[in-house]
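Q: Two folds, back to back.
A: First:
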Amino acid sequence: MPKFILLVNYDGGVFEEPMDTWQPGDVAAHFDYYALLSKELTESGEMVQFMALADPRQARTVRADGVAAPVVTDGPFAESKEVLAGFNVFDVESEERALEIAARISAVPGPGGVPTQQPVEVRRVMADEHGEL
């Protein structure tokens, strides 16, 4: 079966206010939705991996030429428009199924239970001739 990675950025969708300003009940509903969806997709055998990432202010960028010591800088920087918040890897029957799951992720509730409509990028994972990574 093909594998897909679903990428979610720190993008509030239809909400401009950051999550740390939401009411506690709205934050709880947001994470409860993700927990239930994760449980369902893990039990179905479709979810291979889920990773939420730490605050982007803790990120570091490494550049190396393989000879000299690597250069490590803080990042991402203020000019970055898109910063990865997390990702999911799914092993599903089709791209259509990956898109269905992405739609459910995008509908995670925000303030007042309104779906965030957070954009989710869907990309197929490359595989060798045997279907393995």
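A: Second:
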Amino acid sequence: MGRHQHPHLPTTEAAVRAIRTVAQEFDLEMTVTDDIGADRTSRRTSADAFAVLDPDGSLPHEAYVELGGSPSVSVQLFPEDDAKITVDGVVFDDVPRDAAPAFVRSVHGGLAHVKGRFFPPGWWLIVPLPGDETYKELVFRHTLTPWLSRNVR
């Protein structure tokens, strides 16, 4: 799905820099927590308990980015080229790392919106990205925050 249209971000650092650029565009505060080394990253089940390097000798790097402003957005960048992005409590797993900056831009640029459905009943947070790429996640009714409510279309 349109993955090739985003600039390639080969490392976690490159992704953090790209998200920082978006945060500056929208004048958002940004906090970054870095976990570097296989012993520190959350997903490394293959790493030995005291290993710091991956089997190939590289240093895995994970970062957790929190953005100020409304809605609340956090981006967890994993060494495996993907990210988990949370928008006002709605979790999008497995977003390609290259798409993370465009995703944040879509949310803060007013493109993200909530759509209700009669069948199956529910609310969906829809985040369109350039190039006909769209992410959708179910919003549980009790978690419809003021920001999500304002963005119902």
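Q: And?
A: The mean pLDDT is 85.
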